[in-house]
Amino acid sequence: MKTLIEALKDEILIADGAIGTLLYSYGVDRCFEELNLSHPDEVIKVHKEYIAAGADIIQTNTYGANYEKLSRYGLEDSVKEINTEAVRLAKKASQSNAYILGTIGGIRAIKQNISIEEVKRSFREQLYCLLLEGVDGILLETYYDLQELKTVLAIAKRETNVPVIAQVSLHEPGVLQNGIKLKDALKQLEILGADVVGLNCRMGPFHMLSSLEEVPLPNTSYLSVYPNASLPNYEEGRFYYSAEPDYFGDIAKELRLQGARIIGGCCGTTPEHIRSVAKKIKALKPVKEKQVKIKKEIELASTPTIEKLLHHQVKERKTVIVELDPPKHLDTALFFQGAEALKEAGVDALTLADNPLASPRISNDAIGSLVQSKFDLTPLVHITCRDRNLIGLQSHLMGLHTLGIHNILAITGDPAKIGDFPGAASVYDLSSLELIQLIKQNNEGISFSGKSLREKTQFSVGAAFNPNFRHLDASVKRLEKKINAGADYFISQPIFGIEELYEIHESTKHLSVPIFIGIMPLISSKNAEFLHHEVPGINVPLNTRKRMTEAGNDQIKAREIGMSIAKSLLDTAVKLFNGIYIVTPFVRYDMSIELIHHLNEKNNSERKVPYGHHII
């Protein structure tokens, strides 16, 4: 029997289809890779059905048999056992009648925030298990993240001489999720030594065909393609695919004309789909020349420069932003009175939380748009990862840009269970780091899927800073990660101790981006105790809480003490930081205005220039 590469020189090889889809059709809905141990006969049956249908190549049932994915089922300690048995089952089914590829799936397809070091560790563990059992090649499939694929490809090429097939997955035809063109990505993989390059999953045969039309034939490798059967349907709690095998086989003939040397199937494909492919292209020779389709480039529209971007402003001068939470009800009169008064006081931006403490409020994008149009006051809109899935986040960002809202704060968001609707689900498709990266990608005119937005957004991206953890250095390391992700500035949780301000300044002075330091006036002893004991991320020092108890039940005295503490904190904060972030308690905007006046009066006496819009 020829080696896999020898066969590809003059033949088109038929690969198998989806393993999981077939097992799912048998009524199995669990960790498919674990079936290598508990139901080996079912796995062998799948392999044999594809070989009988005409497959020259089968893949091991190991797509998700890595530490990260198996840990979701409590099987992280069974990586070696599951992968080892998978190769043995494939060999038993094949009886040397088909090439066996050891399959390793992308991890970032399901866990985007995993570090590249974790990817390497998990990949090596699975790779060695497959190689020790003697596979004919390694199949790297369903990699949406090109960096991840290039990283593991380099490892595979160092560790083995067996052929390596490297396949990307696309959200949009012809382009990866970071905006790089498919042809350029495959060229990079070819240069790194991939023996076969191609694409699989996510798209049906039509869109994969249109994607390959733009890809030239590789110089030193071959092309592969594993389309889904179609887009999935959903009915009565189950996914299913309706594409007909004959149609799949007809498109396979077109895929051959685009240079594909290995043609198989991914999600939704069955032995019938592979049988149709084998019937229609088995006797055909591969093409060695093709006409590449040149796709017209979509030019990005020119976007006017935005002047009121906070991260530019705070680097140039002292800048004050004030948080005023949108109402929990539909009576907006008090809120807009506060917004107008804060504008007159000279605040640089109004920050608008996104359902803080997981309690529903009027949407901050709607309120922000009105604040901007009514009072010419810059809104700083918070976006949480809690309430929107990836589709909603991308849509929301496009909507904010269209509304002319360009200053945003990307945060994870408090879990839904602590709020007014504890039965609601927290989404968290993205982490705050990933949301920052998405926003920055939008600033390049590219959506999450890699598709052109036809215009660059101009978001100034803020990130949250919680210095109230037990170990401040751990919080600072988190800031460094956010800077690497693209954060332009930070907004801290409220600080209630002067010593803490000095400590924060010393620990963050090496950072390359500015910090808005949070100051929140306390209104009572109960308020101080509640914030300290029950609000995540808040720490009110004991001496501050003791001072608030001096007022007893006297609300006026409590206000005076709270304001005195806040002014003292402001006096120190303004010496150490260019950005001041005042948190308004319970829509009592008069307290925030008093703090702004205090800053102006102090500055007038020291520098003869006010804070706010009049600073040069």
What does this 3D model show about the protein?
The protein has 616 residues and is α/β, with parallel strands linked by helices. Helix content is 43%, strand content 14%. The longest helix has 22 residues, at 555-576.
**DSSP strand content:** 5-15%
Give the class from helix and strand content and strand pairing.
alpha/beta
Count of DSSP E strands? Answer: 18
Number of helices: 23
List the keywords.
616 residues, single chain, 8-stranded parallel β-sheet, 23 helices, 8-stranded parallel β-barrel, alpha/beta
SSE blueprint:
Elements: H1 4-8, E1 13-14, H2 19-25, H3 35-38, H4 40-53, E2 57-59, H5 67-70, H6 79-94, E3 99-105, H7 116-132, E4 137-143, H8 146-159, E5 164-168, H9 182-191, E6 196-200, H10 205-212, E7 222-226, E8 233-235, E9 238-240, H11 245-257, E10 260-263, H12 271-281, H13 310-316, E11 319-323, H14 333-345, E12 349-352, H15 364-375, E13 379-384, H16 390-403, E14 407-411, H17 432-442, E15 460-465, H18 472-485, E16 489-494, H19 498-508, E17 515-519, H20 525-534, H21 542-549, H22 555-576, E18 579-583, H23 589-607
Parallel strand pairs: 1-10, 2-3, 3-4, 4-5, 5-6, 6-7, 7-10, 11-12, 11-18, 12-13, 13-14, 14-15, 15-16, 16-17, 17-18
Antiparallel strand pairs: 8-9
